[in-house]
Amino acid sequence: MSNSFDKSTIPDLGGRVILVTGGTGGIGVEIVVELAKHNPAHIVFTGRNATSARTTISRAQALSPGASIAFVQCDLASLTSVNAAADKIIAAYPRLDVFFANAGIMATPPGLSEDGYEVQFATNHVGHALLTRRLLPLLEKTQAMPGADVRVVITSSTAWYGGVMKFDPLKTTKNTAVAMGRWQRYCDSKLANVLYARELAKRYPKLLCFSVTPGVVGTSLVTDLSLFDRAFVYVSQLGRIKTPEQGSYNHLWALSEPRASIKAGAFYEPVGKLSTSESASSKDPEMAGRLWEWTEKELKKWLE
Fold it and tell me: What is the pLDDT of residues 192-217, one digit of tens each?
């Protein structure tokens, strides 16, 4: 995987509004800081920690004085929190040009979200799905404006190759007895990201929707793991772990690459490499549709 990206290819973002989830840490910070240099109308980012958010804003505005950067508190593991965040964004901004569904957790201890979902699946997929669905009218409204180029970029991982979609256990902590259960749950959530991006692209073809991976990045997702899991990551990815800045390159590419050069619904590896890898689940023509319908059913009360 390439670690290079030419930042001079990032276009002038004048008039555009950009949303980044997970902007309080890791590659989310790097995305906010870099894009603030390119004259956006507004950058909005979400996260759980208001103190970390102030650090992100201070760092970005130190390099880009006058940049309009706002924080909206949002816990993706809480649909109540996601719904409130969506309300604030919709009320505050008349348009939304780029949505980076970037936040995530990895290999966390067994647990359920407050809504009863396995916590990794809740954070990485269900919460983002609700935020996406709530924002779709604003995204579609923006795309209808002259010269608009609306993009929805969902952060996944090459871990999705090991994912499976079993809909029954998504509200349980199944497989927690074995040491690798937490990794399987992570893989499953990352497969959901890829499938959801594909189905989103199919159902909303006027929007450019696709998924990307940053690669393996030395952020808190790795450093906060148990000693055993950190050792597993560092040994298995020896020589391939990126800095957070390098980890942001595929996302910056996703915003900068000419629209006609990107395949809607596809999955891109760093930097800008169309993935040709597939798993049995990803090749199932019905799987993305099944995930969409399951998700719609789960979110129904929030979308009425």
Answer: 999 999 999 999 999 999 999 998 76
Contact between 145 and 95 under an 8 Å Cβ cutoff? The reply is yes
Q: Which positions are annotated as active-site residues?
A: 186, 190
Dist. CA 49–CA 103, nearest whole Å: 13
Low-confidence residues of the chain, pLDDT below 70? Answer: 1-2, 158-164, 167-180, 217-240, 242, 278-283, 285
Does CATH number 3.90.1150.10 belong to domain 7-303?
Answer: no
Considering all CA atoms of the chain, what is the largest pairwise distance in Å, rounded to the nearest integer?
54
SS3 of residue 73 by DSSP: strand
- Kindly list the domain boundaries of the chain, sorted by start residue: 7-303
Q: Which residue is listed with tokens 């760093």?
A: 270
H/E stretch holding 99: strand 98-101
Angstrom distance (rounded) from CA 121 to CA 79: 13
